[in-house]
Amino acid sequence: MKSLQRRETRDAWLMMLPALVVLLVIAVYPILRTFWLSLHEMVLTDPGSGYPFVGLKNYTDIFRDARAGASIVFTFKFTIATVVLELIVGFAAALIMNKTFKGRGLVRAAILIPWAIPTTVSALMWKFIYNDQYGLFNDVLYRLGLIDGYKAWLATEGGTFMALVIADVWKTAPFMALLILAGLQMIPGDLYESAKIDGANSFQAFVKITLPMVRSTVLVALLFRTIDAFRVFDLVSVMTGGANGSESVSLYAYAHLMKFLNFGYGSAVSVLIFLFVFGISLIYMKSIGKDLAS
User: Which GO terms describe its cellular component (predicted)?
Assistant: First the structure.
């Protein structure tokens, strides 16, 4: 019996070996290489420096840089605001799509359209919508009497943050809705019938049945969206370019890597992003594990 288990274990490792090699090449090596670069002063505009080893100097410089601190604060604010709103909007959309009504397939397809649009295209569209001269957002608010004149929403810090949050929620809330819908459809209908017989109303059924049954699905959806929101780059880059306090950590890293060609410092910022994302993933995975175990 033990020899059979050893043989099965050996065969399993042999079958996984190609995938593990690919994973090492495309995932582990770049991470280790980036960490190695972050420990050196590597500015491509100064090749004569020899790229000396500087230890943790690049990391300490990050925390001394006010621009880096501002980008971290913005990224956390953006992540919290978008993920919370996407959860609310996505859950509501999933509940609607889970109902049986005429034209449900058309409604599901319509809700998923924003998610199918590439982020760059979506960002350009919203940039035109917020235009201070011919933007649709100003026109609608003006016709409703909510503003007395067209405003440059992307010219102020508050307006820029609001515009980015709305654009991101519009784009990715359907993804949250799709995942939650999958969880809702796995709930047996008999549970709701039993609750109805016992005298439970719709709200009680939602609290006692729906929420507990989709908790794991919601945590998975939050995991994906939190990681994606924290790494936001293309939406901010296209809509604002990081102006008015809207520079994300990813955009800050890109500026040092590709514009200033400071690979040492930029790699250090990239490593911090990886550590933040890794920490977020651990927290969610621990919560998901506890939920599944219970």
Answer: plasma membrane
Three-class SS of 116-184: HCCHHHHHHHHHHHCCCCCCHHHHHHHHCCCCCCCCCHHHCHHHHHHHHHHHHHHHHHHHHHHHHHHHH
- In which residue are the tokens 């042999």 written? 14
Please tell me the total number of residues recorded for the chain in this structure: 294
Check: CB of residue 245 under 8 Å from CB of residue 251.
no
Tens digit of each residue's pLDDT (9 = 90 or more) over 85-116:
999 999 999 988 888 778 777 888 888 889 88
What whole-number distance in Å separates Cα of residue 11 and Cα of residue 5? 10
> What is the mean pLDDT, run by run of 10 residues, along the chain of 294 residues?
75 84 83 90 80 89 91 94 94 87 80 88 92 87 86 89 94 91 85 79 81 86 90 92 91 90 91 90 80 61
For residue 211 the two structure tokens come to 């929420």
Unique residue bearing structure tokens 């109303």? 201
Given a contact cutoff of 8 angstroms between Cβ atoms, the answer to whether 90 and 177 are in contact is yes
Interhelix angle for 263-293 vs 29-38, to 10°?
A: 130
**What is the dihedral sign for C-alpha 217, 215, 232, 270?**
negative
The first and second tokens of residue 240, run together, are: 């604002």
pLDDT at res. 70: 93
CA distance 172 to 116: 9
**Quick one: which H or E segment has residue 272?**
helix 263-293
Burial classification of residue 182, based on how many CB atoms lie within 10 Å of its CB (0-12 exposed, 13-18 middle, 19 or more buried):
middle
Q: How far apart are CA 274 and CA 266, in angstroms?
A: 12
Tokens of 264: 């040492």
For the whole model, what pTM was predicted?
Answer: 0.86
